[in-house]
Amino acid sequence: MGSFRQRGCKCPPDRKRCNCGAKWYYRYDIVDPKTGKRKQKEIGGFTSKAEAEAEAKRIQYELLRGIYTEPSKMTVEEFMTDYVKNTLKNEVAPNTYEQRLAYVQNHIKPHIGKVKLSDLSPSHIQKFYNDLREKYGPGHVQNIGRLLNKAFNQAVRWNMIARNPFQLVKKPSTSRKNTKIKVWTIDEQKIFLSHAMKGPLIYYTLFLLALTSGMRKGEILGLKWDDVDTKSGIVRVKRTIVWAQKSIYLKDAPKTESSIRTIQLPEQTVKALKKWQLACPANELNLVFPSPKTNKILYPNSLDKQFLKTVAESGVSRISFHGLRHTFATTLLSSNVNPKVVQEMLGHATIKTTMDTYSHVLPNMQKEAASQLSAVLF
């Protein structure tokens, strides 16, 4: 039936239990279908003997039923790189392909890349998720988890592994309860805009639009003058910019279907856009905010540098450019604007996304609702 062993244990011989973290392995025999000869196989990396015994039961069951799949010798890194480059590439947009390849190189390879495909255990995966959650947001970690789960499902269909270990681990939570969103107060917004007004007109107008529309960075950089109606005071969000194959380009249809939307702007923002329109240099793509250097698409990292420079000079608390979107939503919700309106302006697919993201505003909204009810009834 096979044997178990603990490799590399450094605990004293008389110890009652192992505390050094040495892994358990299971060794068993199978018959080579090509030669008819018996050969030994070993699977391991288990954190406890019980975990190894559970895997042994599964292997023996599959051997008896004739459904056993011989473990693949490929590592997780080798398989994931091949899967993304040769399978996923044909199924997704270029920018998504580049992003998924970056997941493999930046996250999967350093953590679990050297583990053999057949040796990857639930404990490996749980530790991987835990390590990622210490550095990255829940949405980012879950996207990596989705990629791995999809890839390993394919590995099962290709008979490279017998089962998908990612289905045995709880998916990374997307809860934002422990994620603190950094936003500006009304006073900080005024101070920042007052300082930005002293700088280049293009950046002042761009920052003002971000703070008063809630548009994403890519949506602002992909905005064309055809999308701006200064008479009605609205902008139409139709596209975004994407980075793929080491180049940047415009992509019709932003992040999701709900991202295609119309946003009503404050009068001050409309006036600023009119002023900038007169000064904006003509450019091939008719962009509202072309690069001051190339007159083509303004690169996101260039915008970030200018934004952080302005933040530092103005003396307000440091937030990311995406923090302007969070600030916009928080300001509206705190001012008792209907959450459904905020959802539509942000381009969220559901009201749940809006309320989950900005749950920190809910207590004040509830207090205001209770005050209004008190005023009406008593």
TrEMBL record:
Signal peptide, first to last residue: none
Keywords recorded for this protein, A-Z: DNA integration, DNA recombination, DNA-binding
Entry-linked CDD domains: INT_ICEBs1_C_like
Residue ranges of domain Tyr recombinase in the record: 179-371
Domain of life: Bacteria
Annotated family: Belongs to the 'phage' integrase family.
The Core-binding (CB) domain, residue ranges: 71-156
Protein name: Site-specific integrase
InterPro entries listed in its UniProt record: AP2-like_int_N, CB, DNA_brk_join_enz, Integrase-like_cat_sf, Integrase_catalytic, Integrase_recombinase_N, Integrase_SAM-like_N, Phage_Integrase
Source organism per UniProt: Paenibacillus cisolokensis
Gene3D superfamilies attached to this UniProt entry: 1.10.150.130, Intergrase catalytic core
